[in-house]
Amino acid sequence: QVQLQESGGDTVQTGGSLRLSCVAPGYSARSGCMGWTRQAPGKQREGVAVFHTVDGGTSYADSVNGRFVVSEDKAMDRLYLQMNNLKPEDTAMYSCAEFYDFGGACDVTDFMNWGQGTQVTVSS
Question: How far is Cα 113 from Cα 69, in angstroms, rounded to an integer?
């Protein structure tokens, strides 16, 4: 199980951008799926973005596709989530996460372990 620590959350206005960062020691040495989830008050946790650590293939939730980009820095064992054109409905606690690896394929809805998170608030 990878230990995860997120940072970068803030309050921004609608249309603004944020870049979240996650330290995930040791993840780059393993083959698997890593990415980001979020949970808004009163709602279930949902997967936002996922990538495979070997082939780099990505997948996004429909609600963020075209606005969010997941990336990594293997040398630093860091994951990033660039969030653009933010909307009030993006307000949530964002956590980086491990996802299940289905023989080299990643599903953005199948996460299994996540960090404590960093708060993102988008004001209208």
Answer: 20
d(CA 52, CA 107): 10
The tokens describing 83, both together, are: 């969030």
- How does strand 118-123 pair with strand 11-13? parallel
Of 8, 36, 40, residue with least CA distance to 21: 8
- Say how far apart CA 65 and CA 50 lie, in whole Å: 12
Residue 88 identity (one-letter amino acid): P
pLDDT, tens digit, for every residue of 49-104?
999 999 999 999 999 999 999 999 999 999 999 999 999 999 999 999 999 998 88
> What is the residue whose two structure tokens read 């970068």?
8
- Looking at residue 32, its amino acid is G
Q: DSSP E strands: which ranges in 55-117?
A: 58-60, 68-73, 78-83, 92-102, 105-114
